[in-house]
Amino acid sequence: MIYALKETKTLLDKIPRKERSRGLLACRFSEIKEGKEDKKYRSNFSENLKNGAVFSFKASHQVQWLKKNSTSFFSMKLQSRMMINMSGGVIENGNLCLDRYGIPYIPGSAVKGCARRQAIYLLKEESDFEKKKNILRSIAQVFGWGDSDWKTCNEQSNDFQYACGEHWEDIRNALKSETWGKSENFAGSVCFHEAYPDQDPGIELDIVTPHHKEYYESEGPNAKAWDTEKPSPNIFPAVKSGGLYYFGLSERRKSSESSLIDTAEWLRAGLETWGVGAKTSSGYGWFAKETNEEATVRKDKVEADIKEKEKAELRATDFPTDAHFKNLVLIPLEKKQPENIIKGFNLLKKLENKIHVEKLKPHLKGSEFKNLRKWLKEKMIDYPESWIQ
């Protein structure tokens, strides 16, 4: 059931379920129920999200924008299922990060977090003092800091201190004039854009099954996990593996070229090593570079899809073959049959037949067809000026 204004619900009920936007479903029409009703609702919601309508062509538009506006731009192939926007766990949340067109994307904050995690890891692994100091300087410049990042406290709550280890106080004081001594807060010099696939990767259903639900829900200190409990499967949506995602970085403010290079390397390594999103420790959300063989296969598939789309578009027009176009447009034009010419031209003016106009231009524009155009004007046979341009 959809809870909405009566007018909205009336409109939505007229739209077939498979044509309803999955992006709209995810952000506007998800809800929380209780008990068995909740589990049934989650299953239906996940199924509808999987089969919902998506405007896949918008993905390529986003990728082109990224390419145009990014200083550093690269692609990585998703090697496993991915779950973004699952804060709180798949049972408590069970939604995905979809844009208004229904395309699964990776928020810039998640991209930034992935790169930062790899950078902090490298900082911790480095043992040389000077190199460690330089890495922390780069991290601070790229990702920025808050006033708590430079305070000495519990290592578990300060990853700068955690990664620097015994060198923390010395490095902290050495970088004071460049960082926290200059400003308590800094947003960072690199902008991490949302990552988008070049086409809709698709959504599929996954499942997580707690085997000791009563044990986990019990508040008793002596509770035990008996194998006699009934498993409780929970369905949730996940992004399909195999999609090619594009990542873009740009300068937020003046930064060195080496900073962007370092950041791109951190991000690539982070995507391969740590992954992004929820349940990465279970193998979800990790990426790898696309091999030359995979790139060739993908390119061939894209070209085949384009050709198939062109054929489908032709089949949907009034001129499914060249013979139809010749009989309905070219022959009447050649034989100067006014009534048939008008019929053919009226068909070409229809939006779905626009792709055939280019076939007409060689027979209509140019100085050699000046007399033909004059004759058409005398017969009051109208056509758009763009046909002869």
Compact overview of the structure:
With about 400 residues, this protein is of the alpha+beta class. The protein contains 15 helices and 7 strands.
Describe the oligomeric state of these chains in a short phrase: single chain
Overall 3D geometry? extended
**Biggest β-sheet, characterized?**
5 strands, antiparallel
Kindly name the structural category: alpha+beta
Q: How confident overall, as mean pLDDT?
A: 84
Instruction: Give helix % range.
Output: 40-55%
3D structure, described in words:
The two termini are 54 Å apart. α5 packs across α10 and α12 packs across α13. Strands 1, 2, 3, 6 and 7 form a five-stranded antiparallel β-sheet that branches. The chain has three domains: 1-53, no CATH class; 55-144 and 187-218 and 225-315, no CATH class; 318-388, no CATH class. The model has no long low-confidence stretch (mean pLDDT 84). By secondary structure, it is of the alpha+beta class. The chain has helices at residues 6-13, 22-28, 35-51, 57-69, 108-125, 129-143, 159-164, 168-174, 213-217, 257-273, 292-315, 322-334, 338-348, 357-360, 370-378, and strands spanning 72-78, 190-192, 196-197, 203-208, 234-239, 244-251, 287-288. The chain contains 15 helices and seven strands.
